TrEMBL record:
Role: tRNA methylase which 2'-O-methylates cytidine(4) in tRNA(Pro) and tRNA(Gly)(GCC), and adenosine(4) in tRNA(His).
Database matches in InterPro entries: Trm13, TRM13/UPF0224_CHHC_Znf_dom, Znf_CCCH-type_TRM13
Top-level taxon of the source organism: Eukaryota
Keyword DNA repair: no
Keyword annotations from UniProtKB, A to Z: Metal-binding, Methyltransferase, S-adenosyl-L-methionine, Transferase, tRNA processing, Zinc, Zinc-finger
Ranges of residues in domain CHHC U11-48K-type: 56-83
Protein name (database record): tRNA:m(4)X modification enzyme TRM13
BP GO terms, sorted: tRNA methylation
Recorded family membership: Belongs to the methyltransferase TRM13 family.
Enzyme class: transferase
Record field: catalytic activity: cytidine(4) in tRNA(Gly)(GCC) + S-adenosyl-L-methionine = 2'-O-methylcytidine(4) in tRNA(Gly)(GCC) + S-adenosyl-L-homocysteine + H(+); cytidine(4) in tRNA(Pro) + S-adenosyl-L-methionine = 2'-O-methylcytidine(4) in tRNA(Pro) + S-adenosyl-L-homocysteine + H(+); adenosine(4) in tRNA(His) + S-adenosyl-L-methionine = 2'-O-methyladenosine(4) in tRNA(His) + S-adenosyl-L-homocysteine + H(+)
EC number of the protein: 2.1.1.225
Statement: the UniProt record of this protein carries the keyword Methyltransferase: yes
Length: 109
């Protein structure tokens, strides 16, 4: 299979408007779109520490994504992984049955 000369790996740099982070495991550049004037996507922004002094950390609610350390308090209020308030009519374990096995009559078992 021939490699085209216009592929990002053959030219040594990523496609226009795409992340410049080289994913070693996949042997290709990240294909996520970058913001205007940036070289890296939000996920790989930590690789651009020379460009940006802000530090990204894992979200304490969901470690599948990262947030800027200085915006953590704001993020925790709007993160989709936060604990949502239960409705007024919700009762914990209402249909769980008996809690103590000694209360089960022997005839029914």
């Amino acid at each position: 299979m021939a490699t085209s000369a216009s592929s990002p790996h053959a030219t040594g740099f990523p496609a226009e408007g795409r992340c410049s982070y080289y994913v070693e495991k996949k042997k290709r550049f990240c294909r996520m779109v970058v913001a205007a004037g940036k070289r890296f996507c939000g996920e790989h922004a930590g690789a651009a520490e020379e460009e940006d002094a802000r530090k990204r950390i894992l979200c304490p609610l969901d470690p599948k994504h990262t947030v800027y350390e200085d915006q953590l308090a704001k993020h925790l209020k709007k993160c989709n992984s936060r604990e949502k308030p239960k409705p007024d009519f919700y009762i914990q374990d209402i249909n769980a049955g008996l809690k103590d096995e000694t209360e089960i009559p022997e005839q029914l078992v």
